[in-house]
Specification:
Layout lengths: L5 E7 L3 E8 L8 E2 L4 E5 L3 E7 L2 E7 L5 E3 L4 E6 L5 E8 L1
Antiparallel strand pairs: 1-2, 2-9, 3-8, 4-7, 4-9, 5-6, 5-8
InterPro entries: RmlC-like_jellyroll, RmlC_Cupin_sf
Protein name: Cupin
Organism: Phyllobacterium endophyticum
Length: 93
C-alpha cells in the first residue's frame, strides 16, 4: 500500500488493527488486499471511489454508520469529495 492518504495506526495487537485514514481531495489508500475481515466507520458523510480489477464504483458513506467486509477484498480507495474525508478501519486478526 503506497497511497497518498494519511494513515494513523491507533491499535495494533494480536487481535485487531485500528487505523484512521485521512484523505485530502483526490488522495488514495493505494492498491491493497485485505488479509482479514474488517469494519469501516466513516467519521463524516461523504463519497469514496472504489477502484477494483472489475472497474470503478462509488460508495456513499454516512457518518458513524459502520460497514463490514470479508477478507480478500482488493482495491484502492479514493476520496471523491470536494474536501477532506476520513474514516476509521478496524481490521480483525
Amino acid at each position: 500500500m503506497a497511497g497518498s492518504a494519511k494513515a494513523t495506526v491507533f491499535i495494533d495487537n494480536e487481535r485487531v488493527i485500528v487505523t484512521e485514514y485521512r484523505f485530502a481531495v483526490g488522495d488514495n489508500t493505494g492498491w491493497h488486499r485485505h488479509s482479514h475481515d474488517y469494519v469501516v466507520v466513516p467519521l463524516m458523510d461523504g463519497r469514496v471511489r472504489l477502484v477494483t480489477a472489475e472497474g470503478d464504483s462509488f460508495a456513499e458513506m454516512k457518518k458513524g454508520v459502520p460497514y463490514f467486509r470479508t477478507e480478500g477484498v482488493e482495491h484502492d480507495v479514493v476520496n471523491a469529495n470536494d474536501g477532506e474525508y476520513a474514516f476509521i478501519e478496524i481490521e480483525l486478526k
